[in-house]
Amino acid sequence: MSGDRPIEEARPYGPYGRLTVALAGNPNSGKTTIFNALTGSRQHVGNYPGVTVEKKVGVCRHRGLSLDVVDLPGTYSLTAYSTDELVAREFVIDQHPQVVVDILDASNLERNLYLAVQFMELGMPLVLVLNMSDIAAARGYVFDLEQLSVLLGGVPLVRTVGNRGEGIGRIRDAIVDVATGARRLRPVPITYGPEIDKEIGKLAAVLEPEADRLAPRQVRWVALKLLENDRPIRERIRHICGNAEAVLAAADDAVGRLRKILGDEPEIVIADRRYGFISGACQETVRNTVELRHTRSDAIDAIVTHPVLGLPIFLGLMYVVFWATFRLGEYPMEAIDYAFQWLGQAVGGLWAAGSDSALRSLLVHGVIRGVGAVIVFLPNILILFLAIAVLEDSGYMARAAFIMDRWMHKIGLHGKSFIPMVIGFGCTIPAIMATRVLASRRDRLTTMLILPLMSCSARLPIYMMFTAAFFIEKWRGPVLWMMYVVGAVVAALAAKLLKSTLFRGEAEPFVMELPPYRAPTVKGTLIHTWQRGWMYVRKAGTIILGVSILLWALTSYPKPHAGDIEDLAAEGQQATALEYSVAGRVGKAFEPVTRPLGFDWRVNTAMMGAFAAKEVFVAQMGIVYSLGETDEAQAEPLQDALRRNYTPLQAVAIMIFSLLGFPCVATVAVMWSESGSWKWALLQWAGLTGLAYVAALLVYQIGSALGLGTG
């Protein structure tokens, strides 16, 4: 029977209420065979309106519903190039079928899932049919369908052999379950990297006023297609959007920015990300896969994601990164240090020798010495960020997440928690915000609470100041590496404790995206490095500068009277003046509490500043030992002053406290905002401070008992 009968509007569910079902799939996936098996002889053939493309519609009844099944032209993608592909896509986005059934060739699953992922991006109610499952089995493929369904948002997967009619009843059941809500699906957020995700968000905001003109759930999808330079979508925007020119101009600007940063067309990178999502899902749920597309990647992954070798390789790479951070940054660090010393002497020389000018002291001791003590570590920060950018852009960091996933599950955390933890090596604040990708509130709170234990870039100057002062060159890289490892291990133990007490519950599985390996572009890598480095410089020029000035004032005033100096410790006039100041008095007041940790009043005052920003600890130590000198020309370098006043054991105790101790004030504020309650922010601050105190106490007291606290 033939004709161009339009599909009837779906009526309320009930006895022979109607559903529209779109049958999609790659060419040669057995889609037509499944269509014939579903609908039998109840079919008719016509053309889609306006085009000479054949449209087949069939009807079947199941569980009191009449299913109008539309056999769409075969297509590999929803990025339409041919007429057949355009027809298939426009039917789905314009006719709004209640269910899309995507037929997959089970023996070629990864390639076939590409279309399925695009239906998921569009937010369509979906049923996946693994057809030709007998051929897949003969080729040695073994599927964990239950796990794959979970990773794909609960989408039902039905195993069929279409030419034998096996599994057809299960397809009908799945269609009705999805359409009636008996089978609930959840969105699966597929990320395309921070640059592309950011541009999608911007374009979606521009499109939002036109949301009523677009189909439901299509604003983000349209933004994505514009970044892919999808011409039919651009034409659609011109016809239906009142602000079409603004939308298209914004899309062109976004594509241009991405092209410069990524060194490639956005549509190519987006396709790679989709395949990365698919590859991750298949690695977790399919055994004996031999997809040719991944021959090179799989050969590398067989080594770097190996169950035994993967973790040592990851730790080894991190060791090389920290070794390079010290070794390559040594000479520029010394040059910057020399430049600030020269600047301090030059500015100080504008006044007469021995001048007691407050402005001179502020500029030399507060600004130059304080900010300089932080800026001197900029080369090391840039080298660290450069190395991380290379690892991220090459695709290795995704493998690191895959390696850590099995360990994350052992401590009860969602595998996605590793992503904010990696971000935490840069800054805790965006890391906390990155926990939004976690669906479970339990997992999100657990991850947020432990994130300050990941050594952010603000702690790096503290580590480097003490390691450079107290350890010989060959030990500096290993000590720095150990600080990061200790933080990660303590975070894992804390997460295990929290998941066993406050946040009991199973971690939800997810797809670990494994994008193909790519050679990082020089421009993209440099942009990533500079963006992070500029944040550090900007922080030094604003927050750290402001706090340094405040701490200089607290360290400089009030000035002691002549009669008071006699009652103070006789360490020289400048040193006694420091002790007499507000900061000195507060530091002295806390000495009974911190002395068992090996801290003196100077360290206590630096810890006060570290609450505003961790780097300020270094700035304050620079200020304290600068104010302790009467002549800038004779002022000793900060590292020499540290070696003269502290022991390596004290240095380790201070680093441990800085690693585990209280988060900065900005982290506390973001924690409160993201958790929705002050109690979690206060619990985090108090818990980590108590943990840091106990850990530093044990390190110092045990080390002293073993005779490690001398010289």
Structural features:
two-stranded antiparallel sheet, single chain, Rossmann fold, 61% helix, disordered N terminus, alpha/beta
Q: What's a quick, concise take on this entry?
A:
This protein has 711 residues and is an alpha/beta fold.
Q: Secondary structure elements and their pairing?
A:
Blueprint: E1 17-25, H1 31-39, E2 43-47, E3 54-62, E4 65-71, H2 83-95, E5 99-105, H3 109-122, E6 126-131, H4 133-138, E7 142-143, H5 145-151, E8 157-159, H6 168-180, H7 194-207, H8 219-227, H9 231-240, H10 244-262, H11 266-285, E9 286-287, H12 295-304, H13 310-327, H14 330-348, H15 358-375, H16 378-394, H17 396-410, H18 418-423, H19 428-434, H20 441-450, H21 460-470, H22 473-500, H23 522-541, H24 543-556, H25 562-565, H26 573-580, H27 582-594, H28 601-610, H29 616-627, H30 638-645, H31 648-660, H32 665-675, H33 678-705
Parallel strand pairs: 1-4, 1-5, 5-6, 6-8
Antiparallel strand pairs: 2-3, 3-4, 7-9
Helix pairs in contact: 3-11, 5-11, 7-8, 7-10, 9-10, 13-16, 13-22, 14-15, 15-24, 15-29, 16-23, 19-32, 20-22, 21-22, 21-30, 21-31, 23-24, 24-29, 27-28, 28-29, 31-33, 32-33
